[in-house]
Design brief:
- The complex is a heterodimer of chains A (276) and B (358).
- Chain A is an alpha/beta fold.
- Chain A has two domains: 86 residues, Translation factors (Elongation Factor Tu (Ef-tu), domain 3), CATH 2.40.30.10; 133 residues, Nucleotide-binding domain of ferredoxin-NADP reductase (FNR) module (Rossmann fold), CATH 3.40.50.80.
- Helices cover 18% and strands 30% of the residues of chain A.
- In chain A, the strands form three sheets. In chain A, strands 10-9-8-7-11-12-15 form a seven-stranded mixed β-sheet, sandwiched between helices. In chain A, strands 4-3-6-1-2-5 form a six-stranded antiparallel β-sheet. Chain A has a two-stranded antiparallel ribbon with strand order 13-14.
- By secondary structure, chain B is an alpha/beta fold.
- Chain B has two domains: 208 residues, no CATH class; 139 residues, no CATH class.
- Chain B is 37% helix and 18% strand.
- Chain B has a six-stranded mixed β-sheet with strand order 3-2-5-6-7-8. A three-stranded antiparallel β-sheet of chain B has the order 4-11-10, with no helix packed on it. In chain B, strands 1-9 form a two-stranded antiparallel sheet.
- The longest helix of chain B has 24 residues.
- Chain B is globular.
- The chains are: A alpha/beta (276), B alpha/beta (358).
- At the A-B interface, strand 4 and helix 1 of A face strand 10, strand 11 and helix 9 of B.
Chain lengths: 276, 358
């Protein structure tokens, strides 16, 4: 619609949901539908202020609107958190490489999330749920700092695990009154005591802060997951989103066009892979 | 087919004809001997020249401007169409650098339509280097002081006359339209040019050798081999991270999409040159930074040019123009960095071979 891909198309904020004290889910309706695949990202822009990369957290089957779960952590997200229903934003995308769903079919899927990183994973899970019989087992392991900082709390504590649809377990680094779940790091609930999995042929999908991705990957390798079966949603400062501006280079890759979803075997040789 | 200016005409007449109807960029020599790219409506004899060596500013600025307006919010019209342009006196280092920009802006996952238009509407008239700057080292990175490809028309001056040839369909058509000014170049004239080119090349090889950078050196292996060495921290002691080397570089393509307001207060977006030497270049929201140290950023510049591009394009993103050396206020000479990388890498490699022998 614009003559250049560097300009976003307008979108309206239709709904804002508080997830945690510093995380909100924004429902935006672009002026034209945007079809994306789970794991791809978009650039979300505040007019005249700036833009930043986010992976939608809504089902990829829905193209009229898109949910994006955003932690307030910098200049653009400060602005976004100050916006109201009806305000205009801009969106460019989708960009990058998605989760290869066809590779996942028929295999056990372990989904490992940390903090706000569960956004892209929710998009994946919403797609998986629609076709649950295609997967022998779907396991979710999620860690948050505190019970208050659990994102998509209702789905995590009730919805996804309901009637045994998926094997869901949560942990928090620090408990508070009323928490009767696990307390400890995410890597703990990936141990044998808490995770019964078919690591040798299963697929693991992980998204979270860099430090969690690093230690989480080490744990999955220990458990016997193959490097080519560990899918990581990497996070860099993707700006143009199309492999031109140079900001998100990771060795021979650009996170924006070659990722953001990488298998561990693709990036394990880069000594700086876990740098922020 | 090679041509020369016919007896009844002159170079100025020929170039004046080529420039008709085109926005004209040509070299202009300043008092200090440096050339700059001057814009005019026509070829201006006496002021414009093809130049002896490359101009100070990189050619990329004509295709990838330092500040390019992208669009206003809610305004669907693109910018006004660009005029037809012609650039005279392009030197091979700059010409070769355009392959990097074509790779980035045309051949990737998406095309930059503004860049594509600028490329499409610009005739490139290159010319051989007839002299060299002290900072030049193109043979060390596999280039030479004359164009082999990428030009529409190339003009080489010899004491016996000009040798003119086309390097594209557009250039061929343009030369055909300029037939009145041209006649076929004699074999003897072409032979003179070949000798002259060989001499120029060997002079540049000699200058490169004098600075410790030899043609045929595997700079990819050197930079990759020196990756974990203290070399980068040594140079970072002097570097002030001004970004001049990035901006002046004929191949650096990184940019920032900057949002702000136009003069009327309307939200607008601009594309600006960015520099990987800047501390915020790889920073993410929340305080993370993939390259917090200046040494890491300086190393990144060499890693991108001498490792990344060889891996994805089988060429260095350096054409030996020496602009970064000229521009560096800390007097960091790219040839010194490369030479030290070779030394460090050789030393490290020798040590690891020793260990294996043990």
């Amino acid at each position: 619609m614009y003559p250049t891909l560097y300009m976003p198309i307008p979108a309206t904020i239709e709904r804002i949901e508080d997830e945690t004290p510093d995380i909100k889910t924004f429902t935006i309706r672009p002026v034209e539908p945007i079809a994306f695949a789970a794991g791809q990202f978009v650039e979300l822009a505040v007019p005249g202020i700036g833009e930043a990369p986010f992976t939608p957290s809504s089902s990829p089957k829905i193209t009229d609107f898109m949910e994006i779960t955003i932690m307030r952590t910098g200049r653009v997200t400060d602005w976004l958190h100050g916006m109201k229903v009806g305000d205009e934003v801009g969106v460019r995308g989708p960009m990058g490489r998605a989760y290869p769903m066809e590779e996942f079919h028929g295999r056990e899927i372990l989904v490992v999330g940390g903090g706000c990183g569960v956004g892209p994973l929710r998009s994946l899970l919403l797609e998986v749920i629609q076709d649950l019989q295609a997967y022998p087992r779907v396991i979710v392991r999620y860690g948050a700092k505190t019970p208050d900082s659990i994102v998509f709390r209702d789905a995590q504590t009730h919805g996804w695990g309901q009637d045994g649809a998926m094997d869901v377990m949560l942990t928090v680094d620090e408990a508070s009154d009323g928490w009767d779940g696990h307390v400890g790091l995410i890597t703990e609930i990936l141990e044998e005591d808490y995770l019964d999995c078919h690591a040798e042929d299963g697929v693991a999908v992980m998204c979270g802060p860099p430090v969690m991705m690093k230690f989480g990957t080490e744990k999955l390798l220990q458990r016997g997951y193959r490097p080519e079966n560990i899918y990581l949603s990497m996070e860099k400062n993707m700006s143009c989103g199309i492999g031109q501006c140079g900001h998100c280079r990771m060795g021979v890759y650009y996170c924006c066009k070659d990722g953001p979803v990488f298998t561990y075997d693709e990036i394990q040789d880069d000594p700086r892979v876990w740098d922020d | 087919m090679k041509w020369t200016i016919c007896g009844s005409s002159s170079l100025d007449d020929f170039l004046g004809f080529l420039a008709v109807g085109r926005q004209t960029y040509a070299l202009e020599q300043l008092e200090n001997g440096a050339y700059c790219l001057a814009r005019a409506d026509a070829w201006q004899p006496g002021l414009h020249t093809l130049g002896e060596y490359r101009q100070t500013e990189p050619l990329k600025a004509l295709f990838f401007p330092a500040r390019e307006f992208i669009g206003r919010w809610g305004e669907l019209a693109g910018r006004d169409p660009m005029p037809e342009r012609i650039v005279f006196g392009v030197k091979n280092c700059d010409l070769s650098s355009l392959a990097i920009f074509d790779h980035v802006f045309l051949d990737g996952v998406a095309r930059d339509t503004y860049y594509a238009e600028a490329r499409d509407k610009t005739i490139l008239v290159s010319s051989d280097c007839s002299s060299q700057l002290e900072v030049c080292f193109c043979p060390a990175v596999g280039e030479q002081p004359y164009a082999r490809q990428g030009f529409d028309i190339n003009i080489a001056e010899t004491p016996d006359g000009y040798v003119i040839e086309s390097g594209s369909e557009k250039g061929k058509a343009l030369l055909e339209s300029a037939a009145d000014y041209l006649e076929p170049a004699a074999d003897e004239l072409v032979a003179v040019l070949e000798q002259q080119r060989a001499k120029r090349y060997s002079e540049l090889v000699e200058q490169s050798h004098a600075h410790g950078v030899k043609p045929g050196t595997d700079f990819r292996a050197a930079v990759e081999g020196a990756f974990d060495s203290g070399l980068w921290a040594d140079f970072a002691e002097d570097c002030v991270e001004c970004g001049a080397c990035n901006f002046i570089c004929c191949t650096c393509h990184c940019f920032l999409l900057a949002d702000g307001q136009d003069a009327n207060g309307q939200a607008a977006r601009t594309k600006l040159w960015d520099a990987c030497l800047f501390s915020g270049f790889a920073a993410v929201a929340g305080g993370g930074n993939a390259r917090p140290l200046r040494a890491e950023r300086l190393r990144n510049r060499f890693d991108k040019k001498f490792s990344y591009f060889p891996r994805v394009m089988e060429r260095y993103a350096c054409d030996g123009c020496g602009r970064c050396t000229e521009a560096c206020i800390a007097n960091i000479d790219i040839r010194d960095v490369l030479r030290r990388a070779v030394d460090v890498s050789d030393t490290l490699h020798a040590h690891s071979s020793d260990h294996r022998a043990d």
